[in-house]
């Protein structure tokens, strides 16, 4: 089979390149990544990487899957069989059936079926795949399925299973003493047909009233309804032991084949099983977005030191999958003039949506997947941090503001210049003056660290302090901060993000008008009462 260094996700599975990326389960949940890629056999956090070669290796793998959809069908069918092997091993480890010859050959049947499906599936796309992963997999399964060893293994399996499958019933003999007490019992013969119940109704239906060797005249006690499970288990174990004795020679030969070759290859397939699930779930996500006419791009992976994030036509895939409406796309560029942005705008104007979209694009790129955008150039980050509103129990003891500050302190403990920090409506639990003061201190801190940061906030007054904040940052070698605005067209929200100075008054008027508390609407109500 494939050598131990083969992986669908890493150029070299024994030496995965790049340090582990700090993306916690909480961040994955807050960004909706667990909704986009729901895994059962592994954790999504295990797949983030900063290694450019690994990301490009995966992108090539995924591109092959998009261009050859039958690959996914093949992998899904293999995934089902691998789950069967896991369940089989679980049963063998938890019960006495590990000694049953049927379980000795069933795993091998599953393994041979897997190889056959892989060989057939990849034979049809052999000339179309371009990724190193699928080229290697195609070559290997083709060679394996056509090898003399595999042919011989399949032949021996067929011979053994033929012996097993032709057995439809067994004849059991029991020796009795003079008082009709059982002295010993055993299998007298293996039969190629099922025995008949011997019940009168069956004889009438068959119009066959003769007795023969295959007609039952009394059921064995363990299989009556009144018997306990322990009695039935004891009987089954006795039966299994007897059958093992009958097939002992065949089983001994079979187990040698298993130990010599098959089990190690089955273990290898089980090792890449989480990778198969990851890729098939990713394919499902990408096709769902494409079916809605949404763009996906292969991101250009920039050097980590350049700390780039430039996306054209970015959108939030979670929203795209949940609403039946045209998506508003936006452009976000963490360039030399701004590694940190303060995003303001009206309530429900799209600030939280675009904040998540930036994190999603960064995460998907570092998972080695296409990005929901028209184009993107992205540098890997060492960590993604989120500071979103939470219902944490700590608010009872610390208060909402105390809990927010505690979480920010945890971020500052590990954040570095290669991190991405996303804040959404932080400090909304306190007055605007206090909130703006704390926010400005936090922004200065992130600026000095040098990380990329998007701060979505209702604190429009921050923009008026930005010149002073940038001055303090520059004095200490910090990165520049700029503003983004979630726009509105009259009373309607456009959800378009522009790089501009916010107009806090217009947003205030918009909010007041929305809730019927603008001067004009209040006066209309007052006049209506007169």
Concise synopsis of the structure shown:
The chain is 51% helix and 14% strand. It has 530 residues and is α/β, with parallel strands linked by helices.
Structure report:
The chain is α/β, with parallel strands linked by helices and 530 residues long. The chain folds into 2 domains: 1-16 and 53-163 and 229-291, no CATH class; 294-503, 3-Layer(aba) Sandwich (Rossmann fold). The chain is 51% helix and 14% strand. It has helices spanning 25-30, 33-36, 52-67, 70-94, 101-123, 132-145, 148-165, 200-206, 229-246, 248-271, 273-291, 317-322, 351-366, 394-414, 432-449, 461-464, 466-475, 504-514, 519-529, and strands at residues 169-176, 182-191, 300-301, 309-314, 330-334, 340-344, 375-378, 383-387, 419-424, 452-456, 481-489, 492-498. It has a 6-stranded mixed beta sheet, with helices on both faces. The longest helix is centred in the first third of the chain and has 25 residues, at 70-94.
Layout of helices and strands, plus pairs?
Layout: H1 25-30, H2 33-36, H3 52-67, H4 70-94, H5 101-123, H6 132-145, H7 148-165, E1 169-176, E2 182-191, H8 200-206, H9 229-246, H10 248-271, H11 273-291, E3 300-301, E4 309-314, H12 317-322, E5 330-334, E6 340-344, H13 351-366, E7 375-378, E8 383-387, H14 394-414, E9 419-424, H15 432-449, E10 452-456, H16 461-464, H17 466-475, E11 481-489, E12 492-498, H18 504-514, H19 519-529
Parallel strand pairs: 3-7, 6-10, 6-11, 8-9, 9-10
Antiparallel strand pairs: 1-2, 4-5, 4-7, 11-12
């Amino acid at each position: 089979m494939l050598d131990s260094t083969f992986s669908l996700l890493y150029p070299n599975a024994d030496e995965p390149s790049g340090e582990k990326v700090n993306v916690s389960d909480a961040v994955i949940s807050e960004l909706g990544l667990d909704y986009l890629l729901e895994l059962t056999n592994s954790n999504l956090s295990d797949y983030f990487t900063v290694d450019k070669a690994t990301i490009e290796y995966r992108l090539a793998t995924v591109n092959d899957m998009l261009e050859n959809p039958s690959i996914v069908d093949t992998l899904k069918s293999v995934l089902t069989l691998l789950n069967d092997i896991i369940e089989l091993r679980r049963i063998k480890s938890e019960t006495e059936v590990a000694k049953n010859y049927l379980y000795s050959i069933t795993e091998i049947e599953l393994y041979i079926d897997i190889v056959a499906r892989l060989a057939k599936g990849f034979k049809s796309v052999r000339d179309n795949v371009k990724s190193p992963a699928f080229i290697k997999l195609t070559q290997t399964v083709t060679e394996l399925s056509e090898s003399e060893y595999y042919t011989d293994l399949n032949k021996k399996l067929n011979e053994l299973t033929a012996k097993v499958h032709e057995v439809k019933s067994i004849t059991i003999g029991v020796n009795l003493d003079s008082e009709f007490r059982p002295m010993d019992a055993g299998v007298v013969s293996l039969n190629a047909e099922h025995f008949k119940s011997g019940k009168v109704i069956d004889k009438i239906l068959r119009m066959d009233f003769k007795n023969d060797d295959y007609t039952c005249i009394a059921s064995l006690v363990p299989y009556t309804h009144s018997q306990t499970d322990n009695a039935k288990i004891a009987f089954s174990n006795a039966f299994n032991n007897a059958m093992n004795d009958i097939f002992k020679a065949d089983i001994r030969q079979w187990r040698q084949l298993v130990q010599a070759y098959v089990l190690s290859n089955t273990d290898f397939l089980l090792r890449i099983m989480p990778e198969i699930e990851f890729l098939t779930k990713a394919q499902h996500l990408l096709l769902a977005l494409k079916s809605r006419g949404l763009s996906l791009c292969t991101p250009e992976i920039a050097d980590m030191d350049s700390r780039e994030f430039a996306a054209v036509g970015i959108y939030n895939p979670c929203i795209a999958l949940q609403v039946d409406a045209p998506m508003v796309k936006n452009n976000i560029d963490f360039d030399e003039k701004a590694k940190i942005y303060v995003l303001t705008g009206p309530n429900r104007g799209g600030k939280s949506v675009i904040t998540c979209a930036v994190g999603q694009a960064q995460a998907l790129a570092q998972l080695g997947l296409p990005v929901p955008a028209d184009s993107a150039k992205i540098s890997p980050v060492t960590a993604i941090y989120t500071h979103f509103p939470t219902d944490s129990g700590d608010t009872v003891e610390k208060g909402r503001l105390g809990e927010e500050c505690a979480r920010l302190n945890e971020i500052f403990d590990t954040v570095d210049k290669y991190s991405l920090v996303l804040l959404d409506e932080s400090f909304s639990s306190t007055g605007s003056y206090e909130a703006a003061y704390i926010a400005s201190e936090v922004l200065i801190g992130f600026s000095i660290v040098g990380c990329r940061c998007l701060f979505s906030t209702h604190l429009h007054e921050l923009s008026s302090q930005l010149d002073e904040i940038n001055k303090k940052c520059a004095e200490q070698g910090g990165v520049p901060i700029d503003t983004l605005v979630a726009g509105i067209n009259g009373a309607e929200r456009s959800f378009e993000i522009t790089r501009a100075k916010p107009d806090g008054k217009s947003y205030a008027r918009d909010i007041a008008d929305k809730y019927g508390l603008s001067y004009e609407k209040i006066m209309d109500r007052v006049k209506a009462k007169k």
